[in-house]
Specification:
With about 425 residues, the chain is an alpha/beta fold. It is built from 11 helices and 22 strands. Strand 11 and strand 12 (about 220-225) form a beta hairpin. Helix 9 packs antiparallel against helix 11 (about 400-415). The two termini are about 40 Å apart.
């Protein structure tokens, strides 16, 4: 961690929650483990993180397991985190860089009363917090706005008109929580209808993922990297065409630029950065005379072949230890027809209303499990439109056995309206779980 921090030397570091695991050895029970929080705090102090950069952290749902309320002794975030002692929940940080103000909105949608797993999987933004963020957003409307929080927008329950209203006009929303869904969704990026992109990041615990973000003339670029894999790099100009966000960034500035710009990092030092456009002859990028870790190559966007709708750029970066990183990305010089390439599964997971989807799926599952049995009992002829003759006849015969029919129907109704279980939701507090 300290090698990465000292090599990249970021202006700001964002930690979007799940700072601790907060579970027992077998992962069944969940509670705050003070030793984990002490380790986190000790690492920040040992490596002087807050002396080297602006470090902004926020709670995730793991950090609120078994936290009865904000002032409860289990709320160790307020004691051991970087910002918790001063900002126990949502807060804003504004910094100025090269005559531009950037406001970072840390959005805490964790429950004020944090139950044990799995009862706090969704976030909840209370009306007072929602109104506070909107007011602060309006107050800082002249600044570049960057939002970050633990829960994806689709996983946050918020007052009308909804959480995505907060994100409108923002340069980006950075989230975590879903953590690539165990490898099933490795790239969770999308562009919301308001024009603000959302970039969910894979977890650090298992996959050691971190993200480098760079803003070049108001245009945001990023690269998801793996810890201790070098070199690390981001092409900041021209931006990767897959992730254009024309509603919130001035992408036309790509045409006005006179150089390709690449950020390249390695603790061993960078040996060479070579760039090829549209499979042409590679050219050597030179280290910028004033900016650290920036490599540039002169170019003229007007001289790029206009007959090619989407151009390609291949960059090969080699460090002094012989490690090599290859980057292939596309870019545009014609912004009249833009086509982003956000993956369908990412758009579904990040843009849908997850609570509404779960409710619909729940209702459908109840109907699918009970309607065929009711039809078999009272109108067996209707089953023959959905099932084979032999299947429908067997079902009709089975449900004529009244004990089976009523027990099955009772269990279906029980699952629909509950209660399911009575468990310890908070330490010392038992609750009834309803669907």
């Amino acid at each position: 961690f300290t090698t990465t921090l000292d090599t990249i030397t970021p202006k700001v570091v964002l930690a979007s929650g799940d700072i601790t695991d907060a579970k027992d050895f077998d992962g069944v029970n969940s509670f705050q483990v003070e030793e984990e929080w002490q380790t986190y705090s000790d690492l920040l102090s040992k490596h002087k993180v807050q002396e080297k950069t602006v470090y902004l952290d926020i709670r995730g749902n793991h950090d609120t397991f078994d936290v009865h309320h904000m002032d409860h002794s289990n709320n160790l975030h307020r004691l051991y985190s970087a910002k918790g002692p001063v900002h126990p929940s949502t807060y804003t940080y504004t910094m100025s860089h090269q005559n531009t103000n950037y406001s970072f909105f840390a959005v805490d949608a964790t429950m004020k009363t944090g139950p044990k797993k799995v009862f706090n999987f969704l976030g909840n933004l209370e009306p007072t917090d929602f109104d506070t963020i909107l007011a602060e957003k309006q107050k800082l409307s002249a600044n570049k706005q960057i939002f970050f929080g633990h829960f994806p927008a689709s996983c946050i329950i918020a007052p009308a008109p909804g959480f995505k209203t907060i994100l409108e006009g923002g340069l980006v929303y950075l989230s975590g929580h879903l953590h690539t869904l165990g490898g099933l969704a490795p790239q969770l990026y999308t562009l919301h209808r308001s024009g603000t992109p959302e970039l969910e990041l894979g977890d650090f615990k298992e996959n050691r993922k971190y993200r480098i973000l760079a803003i070049d003339n108001g245009i945001l670029s990023f690269s998801d990297e793996k810890l201790n894999t070098w070199p690390a790099a981001v092409i900041t100009n021209p931006k990767d065409s897959r992730f254009y966000a024309p509603n919130v960034e001035p992408i036309q500035k790509v045409l006005q630029s006179n150089e390709i710009r690449i950020l390249a990092f390695s603790p061993h030092g960078i040996d060479s950065v070579r760039v090829s456009i549209d499979k042409g002859k590679p050219s050597e990028a030179r280290k910028h005379s004033n900016l650290t870790n920036v490599f540039t190559l002169p170019w003229n966007s007007l001289q790029v072949d206009s007959s090619i709708r989407k151009h390609t750029m291949d960059v090969t970066i080699k460090d002094l230890a012989g490690n090599i990183k290859n980057i292939h990305q596309t870019f545009n010089t014609d912004f009249t027809r833009l086509e982003t390439s956000y993956k369908l599964y990412a758009r579904i997971l990040l843009m849908s209303n997850l609570t509404w989807v779960l409710q619909v799926l729940w209702i459908l599952s109840i109907l699918v499990s009970t309607l065929p049995i009711l039809a078999a009992r009272y109108k067996p002829s209707a089953l023959r439109h959905a099932y084979s003759l032999s299947t429908s006849d067997k079902m009709a015969e089975l449900v004529q056995f009244s004990p089976f029919f009523w027990v099955y129907l009772f269990m279906g109704g029980w699952l629909a309206i509950g209660p399911w279980n009575a468990v310890e939701i908070l330490s010392g507090h038992t609750g009834i779980i309803l669907p």
